[in-house]
Amino acid sequence: MKHPLRCALVTNFCPFYRVKLFRLLVARIGARLLFFSDASEKNWEALNPSGGGDLPVVPLGVGTQPRGRVLLRLARVLWREPWDAYIQGISGRLVVPLTYGIARLRRRPIIIWTGFWFHPRTLFHRLTFPLVRHIYRQADALVAYGTHVRDYLIALGVAPEKIFIAWNTADNDLYNTPVAAAALAELRRTLGLTHERVLLFVGRLDQEKGIDVMLAAMRQLHSCPPFVLLVIGRGPLQTTLRADCNQHTMSFVHFLDYVPNAELYQYYALADALIVPSITTRVFKEPWGLIVNEAMNQGCVVIASDAVGAARGGLLTDGHNGLVVPERDPAALAAAVQRVLGDHALRARLSANARATMQAWTYDRMAQGFCDAVAHVTRHRTTQEQQ
Hints:
By secondary structure, the chain is an alpha/beta fold. The protein has 2 domains: 7-169 and 362-386, 3-Layer(aba) Sandwich (Rossmann fold), CATH 3.40.50; 172-358, Glycogen Phosphorylase B (Rossmann fold, 3-Layer(aba) Sandwich). It has helices at residues 19-29, 67-80, 95-106, 123-138, 147-155, 172-175, 181-191, 211-218, 238-247, 264-270, 290-297, 309-312, 330-342, 344-358, 363-386; strands at 7-11, 31-35, 85-89, 110-114, 141-144, 163-165, 197-202, 227-232, 253-257, 273-276, 301-305, 323-325. The strands form 2 sheets. The chain has a 6-stranded parallel beta sheet, sandwiched between helices. Strands 9-8-7-10-11-12 form a 6-stranded parallel beta sheet, sandwiched between helices. The model has no long low-confidence stretch (mean pLDDT 95).
């Protein structure tokens, strides 16, 4: 009788939006989770919940141990346990080559899980790029967020047959929760709104999110119905952005700081459009942007830049279920906003198509990408052993 699979899934930590995916991977490929971070990453909102309490997590002492000791414990677990395959998320400057090296020494297959479609241009990243490219090319399989990542990997010389797509997914059961008219009216009263149209931004207030481009676009809007822009998020530019809005008398911009993730669906239901104006910087290009998934569940029209992974990877299609504009182009963004606010028929069509699209973007479908990758590497290994 064939023994059940046992796969080491190595990633930084367990954000709330991965819990259901990890549960499926535990059941389907025998995943055991190895978390090497305490969730202190600068791009993670510390007030958001993290999960994993009900998952089979291999303890590494994260958060209570020095970094070197955590890496040593990780290496020991990866080396000593009888893993059938390793799955390594593309995070951790030392962890990725560590897992890759151990997999090669133990002659076990390694699968790289990545959402990157851009390599940072810092000196460190330029120097390490040959190693990263080697790992991509020599990995037994790769699991990608969407088609944009697949195309990037192929451009780096990765064999297409080794790439499997795990379509990046949010918790649809939460975000498509119906919101009654009375609840929306109460939210409007709480926010001090009357009959204004509502634009929404959700995210970290940092350079790569393109918030300055969005504000510049807002100043170019003409002949629009009265509107407000709700900005939900915190970050290093918070004070600067508030001052900029005061300087330009942009009283229609309301900064809401933090909204619990479990309550965001109400804001998506309230909004006429979500703006995702991310830009490419030396160190960042939006891997996906799960707020796109979240908003589409409520039929909120998404207007995203072409530097957003979800707008290039298969989810958001310009003119079908949302609008896509060139990055760093305030005029194009302003024109898109004006179209959505001024054309009820367009807004209704994009909204309906967004809701319909999300029916296929499930955790089950995402997990299947991992299952296909594991099946590929285990089948390949069995063939080699029989030869």
